[in-house]
Amino acid sequence: MPLDSTRRCFSELSWPQVEQAVAIDRATLVWPFGACEQHGPHLPLATDALFADRLLDAVLEKLPDETPVWRLPIQSIGFSPEHVCFPGTLSLSSELLISMVVELGEQLAAMGWTRLVLFNAHGGQIALLQVAARELRKRCPSLAVLPCFLWSGVEGLASLIAEPELSDGLHAGLAETSLMQRLAPSLVSESRPAEGLKISEPSHKAPSGWTLEGAAPCAWLTSDVSSSGVIGDSRGASAELGSALETLLIRHWIQMLQSLVDSDWPPRPRSAFRSSAS
C-alpha cells in the first residue's frame, strides 16, 4: 500500500509504509507522554495524557499533507511520585521510564529514524525525559532527540492567565481545568478547588527567591502544600478560556514542528569522538 502522508499514526502503518516513511528526508517521529495521576477532585487521572494525545492529533491534522511527521501511541503512565499519596495515581520508577525511552529509541534508530520528539504534557517528568533523551542520544548518535513540554515557550499565555496563577497554578488549576472543560467537559466535576502555596500555612511559603519550580526549586510532594491535590486556583475556569488556550497551544506546536521539519537542525556529529587536533 502506498504511503499516505495524511495517516500520521505510526502504529497504523504497515512495515513497508514505515520503510517508506523513514526514507523521506527530514522524517520526524513524535512520541507523546502523559501520566495517570490525581488532578484534584474535579479532573480525571488521565488529564496530562488526554492533553498530549488530543492536542498532538489536532496539530498533526493541521500540518500540510506533505509534512513528514508521524506519531507514536501515547505513553499514558509516567513518573508521578509526587502524587502517589492520592488514590488513583500510578507511577513508573525513574529507572524504568528512562530504560523504556532508551530501549524503544534504540529500536527506532535501528529502523532509520533520525529525529524523535518527546512531546510531554506532565510537568513532573520534564527533567527525567531530558535525562532519558541525553542517554538515548549518547547511545544513538545518529538520532536527534528533542524533549519538549506542552506548556513551555508558548507565547500569549500571560494574556490569558494572570499572575500569580500563571506561575503558581502548577496542577489542576485555572489553565488545566479550563482546557479540560474545552476538550472533555463530561470529565470535569462541578468542584472548583483553590489550594496550594498562596493559601497554605505561612510555614509552607517559600523564602524569597525560592519556589516550587523555577530557578531555585525544591523536590516537592503534592501533600506538602495541598490536601485536595490542587496547586492553583480553578475557580475562574471556563470552556471559553480553554478554547483560547487550545488555540495558542496548537498554533505554537504547529510552528515548532513545521520549523523543525523545514530545517536540518540539530546538527549531526562528524564522528563519535573529537579529533586530536580539536
H/E series: HEHEHEHEHHHEHEH
What's the end-to-end separation, in Å? 49 Å
Sheet of most strands: 4 strands, parallel
CATH-defined topology? Rossmann fold
* Quantity of strands, as a count: 6
Mind telling me the C-alpha Rg? Answer: 20 Å
Instruction: State the share of residues found in helices, binned by percent.
Output: 25-40%
* Uncertain stretches: 272-278
Total discrete domains: 1
Mean pLDDT: 91
Strand content: 5-15%
The CATH superfamily name is Creatininase
Structural class: alpha/beta
Spell out the blueprint of helices and strands.
Elements: H1 15-23, E1 28-33, H2 47-62, E2 69-71, H3 94-111, E3 115-120, H4 126-139, E4 144-149, H5 157-160, H6 165-168, H7 174-183, E5 194-195, H8 222-225, E6 232-233, H9 239-261
Parallel strand pairs: 1-2, 1-3, 3-4
Antiparallel strand pairs: 5-6
Helix pairs in contact: 2-9, 3-4, 7-9
Write a brief caption for the model.
By secondary structure, the chain is of the alpha/beta class. The chain contains 9 helices and 6 strands, in the order H-E-H-E-H-E-H-E-H-H-H-E-H-E-H.
